[in-house]
Amino acid sequence: MWLQQRLKGLPGLLSSSWARRLLLLLVLLLVAYWYLGAARARGGGRGAEPWGPAALCLQTASGAWREQTQRGDALPLPEEAAGAGEPRVAVAGNGFLLLDVSAGRLWVRPAGPAAGPPLATEYPALVRLRALGGRGEARAALAALRDGAVRRLRCVQTGPGAGDCVTVREEVVAHRSRPHLYLQRIRIANPTGRVAAFEASAPAAASALGGRFTTSLEKVEERQFLLSSGRLLLAGSPKVVLVVVAAKKLVSRVQVAPESHFDETVLSVVYTSEPIEVSRLEETFSKLREAAKKEMLEVMQMGVEDLFQEHQQTWSDLFISGIEMRKITDAHTPSSETVNMTLYYVLSTVPAPLLDPLLAGEDREKIEASLNYADHCFSGHATMHAQNLWPPRLTSVSQILQLSDLWKLTLQKRGCKGLVTAGVHGLMQGMVLSFGGLQFTENHLQFQADPDVLHNSYSLRGIHYNKDLISLAVLLDAEGKPFLHVSVKFQEKPVRLYACEAGCMNEPVELTSEARGHTFPVMVTQPITPLLYISTDLVHLQDLRHTLHLKAILAHEEHMAKQYPGLPFLFWFSVASLITLFHLFLFKLIYNEYCGPGAKPLFRSKVAVPDSAR
Fold it and tell me: Which residues lie closer than 8 Å to 29 by C-beta, 6 or more apart?
């Protein structure tokens, strides 16, 4: 009653002019708040108005990044994670060096065969550029997965006009095949009509190093660079780890003329010692300095583009193998972004012994053999739904290192010790095998995924089988039924490969390098056995059907129907009984109303009213 009375009085309240004006003002404020909030969410950077010239410049300059992200070749690294806690950490590494690009911090691994975990240094690893006279700026960062690089973009507003923006692009890589080298490429484009000035803090700036490192200017063969030396203390040990860094010298102030650009690549070479006694400091420092000088002169004589291409080619070769998520239908399966970011993080912390030119021929052959046929790897259930192995977000270098150690331990305990020894190439192979539950046995490769989780669509590419590469995909047809797709890429002389589905009751199919590949139905056996077998031995696959001793072989949809038969008969009988009783009760009410004692007539006759009664 109270609400009804208030609603009746609402038109009278709005009849006054001040009330209508107040209501209009509230509506305008809500619209403005919504618009500004949406614009801020779309803004690309920090330190500038989301709708200002710097943010608009950033959206235009990062257009190519969106295409890379859509292809799955790159992942954005926002400096501020909106509503999701801390942002992902931006790192570039090669197993010996690890660069925290966000913090500008260098992590190094001690030398020696028994090297411990990476250690954080206080060395300012990257050049920092501070715009002089800037009115605002917007920033963005990206992890280029296939290039093994972190790219950063800044748009600095230098004037009042929409076109008064200077773009600063940076690319940071830890060279994959030269473990002691990392590079920072800087490109400043100034399309405006005024000079753009930046203050540069060099990696070996005396004010940044403090008392932790000592720096000297070295001149060798008409080339000069900065040589910094420092030490790292080990927790609970009297020993120390020595660090020597040779870095290209950069001017402290950068000025870019109107309508021009500035390009510079800072090369840095890092050498570390094994944990040593304090008494060996001078001797060890001398050896490390000579090694750093030698490599620094070598890379300074090379072309910068050659160094980048060398790194990108080596890194892209790693991603011949990989995992692609196509369709996810539940909340427990990691997204494509999570999978790719995990692969990138873990590979950045693992060395590559196969790329070491000093590796002995016998050791190289042993590692390559374990890569081509990882016997008994991966045993156990698939890791697809192990959230601690595929975390959705990592926000520090320490978390990345812990994840890398967990992956190594998991693979070692699941029969993949040889792959872990093979370094980054082996770890990529082990992670791909474990994701889908692929296992090598003495005679074949088997796909032993859980048939109950095949409602997700994904593909595993670049699986080494001898010297050939196999790709396996779990796909869904138009009715949502899963099937398997297998393709082969022969690397050298083609060999005969055969495959058969669960139970191998049908004749094995020879796999070829045809582009369309081969498809296999998903069959489920009782008891459960692998869903697919691949082998070079045709007779072995033909003999499998006689050794599995199965009770039944069902199609996937029949298996799922038995697993989830629906609600029990008693439930449906109860529902039907309640519906029937309700209708009987309703019929009784209607009957008593119109047909029972004292029932009302169905039709009322009209009775004429006399004129005198009117």
Answer: none
